[in-house]
Amino acid sequence: MSDSEESSTAPTHTTDTEEQTQQEGGENGEKKHSAIVASHYNKLEDRGLVARKKSNIYFMRNFNNWIKSVVIDKYTTLVKGRTPLGSPFRVLDMCCGKGGDLIKWANANVTHLICTDIAQVSLEQCENRFNTMDQWSRDSQRRPKVEFFAADATLQQLRTKYRDPSIKLHLVSCQFAFHYSFESFKQADCMFKNAAECLEEGFYFIGTMPDANEIMKRQRRAMSDTFGNDIYRIQFLCDTDNPPLFGAKYNFQLDEVVDCPEFLVHFPTFEKLALKHGLRLVERKRFEEVFDENSSRKQGLLEKMQALEMYPPPYGRFNGDDQRKEPEQYQHAEEYGRQMSNRHQFRVGTLSQKEWEAATLYLFFAFQKMKTSYDANGMPVYS
């Protein structure tokens, strides 16, 4: 989508009754879609490590988790640099899912953690995971204050559900979820309000989401409204020649993990909405950029998290029934090996081509809460 698509059309006249009907229809549609998303994630089973290792996207999921670890570590370090030693560290994990980032919050020594998600079952799994985590069960003094509650952050004000609605947060994290709010302006605006209104001045809102520019680029290249590979597939359910700023709907399937409707996020609109709530863009990077900038410095973490697949595999190249070892999926690794002087000792960490294609659909963003003052009418002014 181009910046020119942000221009609004002239409003049409409606009667009060028609306007009320349209609003009710919109609200019902938003609630219906939220229910679909919640139902999808509630039905996802926590399959355990053994089952996950057999997945076609095992390494890609680890790679995405490594990306999150890198950026969360960066911004928790920035938070600590802005606060005195021993100060509270309060985090909102918005759309926390099953608690995949709990270990990251433990490593960051957060003192107050708020976990919320639209899916009640996922939230219960998150709470169970928290209660059994070794990092906190071994050291009760490090155990943070924690809150768990189910809510739709695109339609409900989260602040009213906090134990202390006046709480000041140092970091808000929304991983792989903000794009669901772009069903409508009202939902996206609500999501930003939830991210920003309790965030202390100078601190950060971070997250990950699909890159709409990349998705549209692939749609154009495929010359089809349906495209992808063996592990991911996108099917557009809107006009791709002139997609709307809100409600640009597509169905996204990711092997055994995701199969539900999502929405494109037009980033210039995303950035303008953020400014409305006092959030200034600090950085925006695609996943491959984050990898290029951090792979050397964070190589040990890459290996620890098994974020890359060893190629050729330790026990022979294409053995057993391992579906990931399709030769054509590793031609880039073979080419790298041919360029090495010690070809007989060649082994490299990589992703299959199809996993890389799926992983590079995403981007990372970070915003900083601006200084707030108020005008004569009591309206916030950000600087």
TrEMBL record:
<keyword id="KW-0949">S-adenosyl-L-methionine</keyword>
<keyword id="KW-0506">mRNA capping</keyword>
<feature type="binding site">
    <location>
        <position position="152"/>
    </location>
    <ligand>
        <name>S-adenosyl-L-methionine</name>
    </ligand>
</feature>
<feature type="site" description="mRNA cap binding">
    <location>
        <position position="129"/>
    </location>
</feature>
<feature type="binding site">
    <location>
        <position position="175"/>
    </location>
    <ligand>
        <name>S-adenosyl-L-methionine</name>
    </ligand>
</feature>
<feature type="binding site">
    <location>
        <position position="117"/>
    </location>
    <ligand>
        <name>S-adenosyl-L-methionine</name>
    </ligand>
</feature>
<dbReference type="InterPro" id="IPR039753">
    <property type="entry name" value="RG7MT1"/>
</dbReference>
<feature type="site" description="mRNA cap binding">
    <location>
        <position position="179"/>
    </location>
</feature>
<feature type="region of interest" description="Disordered">
    <location>
        <begin position="1"/>
        <end position="32"/>
    </location>
</feature>
<feature type="site" description="mRNA cap binding">
    <location>
        <position position="104"/>
    </location>
</feature>
<keyword id="KW-0808">Transferase</keyword>
<feature type="binding site">
    <location>
        <position position="180"/>
    </location>
    <ligand>
        <name>S-adenosyl-L-methionine</name>
    </ligand>
</feature>
<dbReference type="GO" id="GO:0003723">
    <property type="term" value="F:RNA binding"/>
</dbReference>
<dbReference type="InterPro" id="IPR016899">
    <property type="entry name" value="mRNA_G-N7_MeTrfase_euk"/>
</dbReference>
<dbReference type="Pfam" id="PF03291">
    <property type="entry name" value="mRNA_G-N7_MeTrfase"/>
</dbReference>
<keyword id="KW-0489">Methyltransferase</keyword>
<dbReference type="GO" id="GO:0004482">
    <property type="term" value="F:mRNA 5'-cap (guanine-N7-)-methyltransferase activity"/>
</dbReference>
<protein>
    <recommendedName>
        <fullName>mRNA cap guanine-N(7) methyltransferase</fullName>
        <ecNumber>2.1.1.56</ecNumber>
    </recommendedName>
</protein>
<keyword id="KW-0507">mRNA processing</keyword>
<feature type="site" description="mRNA cap binding">
    <location>
        <position position="262"/>
    </location>
</feature>
<dbReference type="InterPro" id="IPR029063">
    <property type="entry name" value="SAM-dependent_MTases_sf"/>
</dbReference>
<feature type="binding site">
    <location>
        <begin position="64"/>
        <end position="65"/>
    </location>
    <ligand>
        <name>mRNA</name>
    </ligand>
</feature>
<feature type="binding site">
    <location>
        <position position="68"/>
    </location>
    <ligand>
        <name>S-adenosyl-L-methionine</name>
    </ligand>
</feature>
<keyword id="KW-0694">RNA-binding</keyword>
<feature type="site" description="mRNA cap binding">
    <location>
        <position position="362"/>
    </location>
</feature>
<dbReference type="InterPro" id="IPR004971">
    <property type="entry name" value="mRNA_G-N7_MeTrfase_dom"/>
</dbReference>
<dbReference type="GO" id="GO:0006370">
    <property type="term" value="P:7-methylguanosine mRNA capping"/>
</dbReference>
<feature type="binding site">
    <location>
        <position position="95"/>
    </location>
    <ligand>
        <name>S-adenosyl-L-methionine</name>
    </ligand>
</feature>
<dbReference type="GO" id="GO:0005634">
    <property type="term" value="C:nucleus"/>
</dbReference>
<keyword id="KW-0539">Nucleus</keyword>
<comment type="similarity">
    <text>Belongs to the class I-like SAM-binding methyltransferase superfamily. mRNA cap 0 methyltransferase family.</text>
</comment>
<feature type="site" description="mRNA cap binding">
    <location>
        <position position="98"/>
    </location>
</feature>
<feature type="domain" description="MRNA cap 0 methyltransferase">
    <location>
        <begin position="55"/>
        <end position="370"/>
    </location>
</feature>
